[in-house]
Specification:
The chain has about 525 residues and is an alpha/beta fold. It is built from 17 helices and 16 strands. Among the domains are: about 40 residues, no CATH class; about 70 residues, Arylsulfatase, C-terminal domain. The chain is about 30% helix and about 15% strand. α8 packs parallel to α10. The structure holds calcium ion.
Length: about 525
């Protein structure tokens, strides 16, 4: 066999190992029949941990002077850290982009409630791709891409499903988006593969415990596993074990103290997970990804890493998040990568690592790029690109009028915000000085790209006029299992009739309002 033919036969995951196991990889073609098995065994497990509503400024390793995040700090030291990594400004949109490799609007996701959080059934998820490539897949925590039976993760590529409903534990919104009745962050009822379990403990502890039990079982099997652990913490309501709140009480405002406590609790769980991977002897060949799902919230007023804005804004503070990647067997950690990267890159990265064969349709779906070249060499060539952010959340039927409201379009140097403000991020990362007059050519280019993008997405907003069921599906399922039903007030709260909504998109005529519908 000549070298050319041999190199064509090396699978992507084998090629990755050349650095660490060059000799082994070189010998693989000589091993004959066992070669294929050896190659498959080398594919890593994948563990993807994503806190909710935690920003770039909420980690000690990223400059926060108050919070304690020892596990994240240690992990940061071992990881490739993307320092210009962007997600969407809110929860469901980011999740839609992560699961599909394309902008959330192309998946019909333009909000976090009112059926506009539902991921189009036409999309293929990364879980489906990994499953088809031989992985076993599990989700533990917050899905937030549709609560109806055909929208849930067990129908979107996850073998194991352990989730709350809606965008958060205890939520109730009109239509389909809502959690089991009466749930709080302590002892919540969680949907486990189609039946509710009444759990014991704090929500974050519960999700990690379940994920670890599942990983412990799956690590003994032949297939590599994909464990997706999107926590609902530290999203509001700020319910936190008292001992964690006490650690920050008096040092920062009370709401931030609760928020920091939730993050430290999550960090303790993350540390315990990393310790388990080591104990189990699978640390070397497990890819662990840690990122957050939108910009900062209750910590922004204390420390925001020099950025402008937070969650639900189109500025840097709304979308730039921590993004740490560790896979000891394949690439070195302890380095920053400054390339402009994003949530849409996760899908193609994992697909390549898994050696998945993508259909032409799925290839057309994916807009992101594989991060593998950067993970192996953070200074690898990375052609400049344009990324679009739009906060969405327009009142029903107003999409066309919202084209230039709460949006930004950026390349690696400039961000054009709301079609009226241009920031030179290289010299002004805090977006303080509008330089739109100084760079007419840049503005023209970004505007043209935005126009093209908008005309492409507008016809694909399939959820805009959707009307959900009268009862939240999670609640209906819960009552079916345990008995009970809604009272009048809850019925009004779940009423999907758009006439009962106020113009700003919050429940109107019902008089029942909730904060932070994200
Ligand atoms: Ca969020």
């Amino acid at each position: 066999m000549n070298n050319e033919r041999r190199s064509r036969r090396i699978k992507p995951w084998q090629a990755l190992r050349v650095g660490a196991y060059g000799l082994l990889t070189a010998l693989l073609p000589l091993i004959g029949a066992s070669r294929a098995a050896a190659a498959v065994a080398e594919r890593p497990n994948i563990v993807f941990v994503m806190p909710d509503d935690v920003g770039y400024g909420d980690y000690a390793c990223l400059g926060n002077p108050i919070i304690r995040t020892p596990a994240a700090n240690a992990f940061w030291k071992q990881s490739v850290r993307f320092t210009d990594f962007h997600v969407s400004p809110t929860c469901a949109p980011t999740r839609a982009a992560l699961m599909t490799g394309r902008h959330e609007f192309k998946n019909g996701v333009t909000h976090t409630i009112y059926e506009r959080e539902r991921l189009t059934l036409k999309a293929t998820t990364i879980a489906q791709v990994l499953k088809n490539a031989g992985y076993t897949t599990g989700i533990f925590g917050k899905w937030h891409l549709g609560d109806e039976p055909d929208r849930r993760p067990d129908r979107r590529g996850f073998d194991e499903m352990f989730i709350h409903g809606g965008g958060g534990i205890g939520q109730t919104y009109p239509g389909s988006c809502g959690d089991a009745p009466g749930n709080t962050y302590f002892n919540p009822a969680i949907l486990h593969n189609g039946r509710f379990e009444k759990t014991t403990g704090y929500c974050t502890d519960v999700f990690f415990r379940q994920a670890l039990e599942w990983m412990d079982e799956k690590r003994k099997g032949a297939a590599p596993f994909f464990a997706y652990i999107p926590l609902n913490a530290a999203h509001a309501p700020l319910q936190v074990p008292g001992e964690y709140f006490k650690r920050y009480k008096g040092k920062v405002p009370d709401d931030t103290a609760r928020f920091y406590g939730m993050i430290e609790n999550l960090d303790d769980n993350f540390g315990a997970l990393l310790k388990k991977l080591k104990e189990w002897g699978i640390e070397e060949n497990t890819l662990v990804i840690f990122l957050t799902d939108n910009g900062g919230t209750f910590g922004v007023k204390v420390y925001n890493a020099g950025m402008r804005g937070g969650k639900v804004t189109p500025y840097e503070g709304g979308t730039r998040v921590p993004s740490f990647w560790r896979w000891p067997a394949a690439f070195k950690g302890g380095v920053d990568c400054a390339a402009l990267t994003a949530h849409i890159d996760l899908f193609p990265t994992l697909a390549e690592i898994a050696g998945a064969k993508l259909s032409d349709e799925v290839k057309r779906q994916v807009e992101g790029r594989s991060l593998l070249p950067l993970l192996k060499n953070p200074k690898a060539a990375w052609p400049d690109r344009v990324l679009v952010t739009h906060v969405g959340r327009w009142p029903r039927g107003k999409a066309a009028e919202w084209k230039f409201r709460n949006c930004s379009i950026r390349n690696s140097r400039f961000a054009l915000v709301n079609n009226a403000e241009l920031y030179d991020l290289k010299i002004d990362p805090g977006e303080t000085t509008n330089v739109i007059e100084q760079h007419p050519e840049i503005v023209a280019r970004l505007r043209a790209a935005y126009d093209e993008w908008w005309s492409e997405v507008l016809p694909r907003l399939e959820n805009e006029d959707a009307i959900g069921p009268k009862i939240n599906p999670f609640k209906a399922l819960y009552w079916k299992q345990f008995g009970g039903g809604p009272d009048e007030a809850l019925l009004r709260q779940m009423d999907p009739d758009p006439a009962n909504r106020s113009e700003n998109g919050r429940p109107g005529a019902t008089g029942l309002k909730q904060k932070n519908p994200n």
